[in-house]
Amino acid sequence: MSNELEAFLEYITITKMLSKKSVEAYKNDLLQLEKKSGKALIKLDLENLLDILTTYTNKRTLNRKLSSVNAFFDFCYKESFSQKHNKLKFAKIPKLLPKFLSYEQVKAGLSLIDRSTWIGKRDYALILFLYASGARISECLELSREDIEGEWLKIRHAKGEKERVVPLAKIATKAIEEYLEELEFEKDFIWCNYQGTKLSRISAYKITQKYLAVSPHVLRHSYATALITGGADLRVVQELLGHASLMTTQIYTHIQKQDLKMTVDVCHPLG
Predict the structure, then answer these.
(1) Model's pTM, two decimal places?
(2) Are residues 112 and 204 in the same domain?
(3) Mean pLDDT for each 10-residue chunk of the chain (271 residues)?
């Protein structure tokens, strides 16, 4: 690892106070590029760097690498490690509407769950919780019992280390209470596997796949879509989802526009 890269990682860890996962992501991206080039990134000319970057055919992967490289170059310029202020342009990615489920589809999946066992009650409560809260699966799995107070949910392990408080539907809190009453283990965290240890991401994925044929993240999209199509203010949805930028939330407005167009096509005589 070059000295400049070490200094950059120290800067984003101590000064910028990025999360461990973010620092590790930057480190992996930049180390990978240094290993491919065989020299320090700061000593690599732009043409050679672009040659390496073009080996990443997936545009989302490429843009993540570019984001890391741009952050590193910006740091090196500001710290006078380099006289050049290089900034590489991101690859254009077509905007795709996020996959989501309707309330009827969620209900149909929930009806398949056998709730005669605590495992069934857990699966039912987990799906309801994800659909009722819009929480990321990483946030969901880190929840402890004290994070739910009445009809309010405190998300402490949020992306970017930002806490937020969101309302939680009564049906979801009731399902969680019924699951916890029958849980065979006394744990501080909420979601347990059959051994009594914390439920893993892959296990949560298998649960939503089994009953809904989607990933847990689709329930987050479904939550946001239900709010937007129901007329919720975009900034309120941004706060509920914990998005740092309104731009991230705006993708759901395309769904709203699509819904409006379908309404006109069906209901208007000129549709």
Answers:
(1) 0.63
(2) yes
(3) 87 88 89 84 80 84 88 89 81 74 95 96 97 93 91 77 85 95 88 93 96 96 88 86 79 64 59 51
Angle of helix 251-267 relative to helix 234-241, nearest 10 degrees, comes to 130
Examine the fold and report which residue of 201, 219, 237 is the final residue of a domain before the chain moves on: 219
Helices (H), the chain: 3-10, 20-37, 46-53, 59-78, 103-110, 118-133, 137-141, 170-182, 201-212, 216-229, 234-241, 246-249, 251-267
Q: What type of residue sits at position 48?
A: N
Residues 126 and 167 in one domain: yes
pLDDT of residue 95: 64
Enter the tokens of residue 6: 């070490």
What's the confidence (pLDDT) of residue 177? 95
Instruction: Verify that 210 and 118 share a domain, yes or no.
Output: yes
109 and 211 in a single domain? The answer is yes
* Residue 220 burial (C-beta neighbours within 10 Å; 0-12, 13-18, 19+): buried
Token pair recorded at residue 223: 């939550």
| 112 and 47 within one domain | no
User: Which residue in 117, 177, 115 sits closest to 145, CA to CA?
Assistant: 177
Say how far apart CA 162 and CA 134 lie, in whole Å. Answer: 15
In whole angstroms, give the CA distance from residue 220 to residue 214. 11
Query: Which positions are annotated as active-site residues?
Result: 136, 159, 217, 220, 243, 252
Q: Domain limits at 24?
A: 3-78
Q: Domain check: are 185 and 139 in the same one?
A: yes
* 52 domain residue, yes or no: yes
Distance CA 176, CA 165 (A): 18
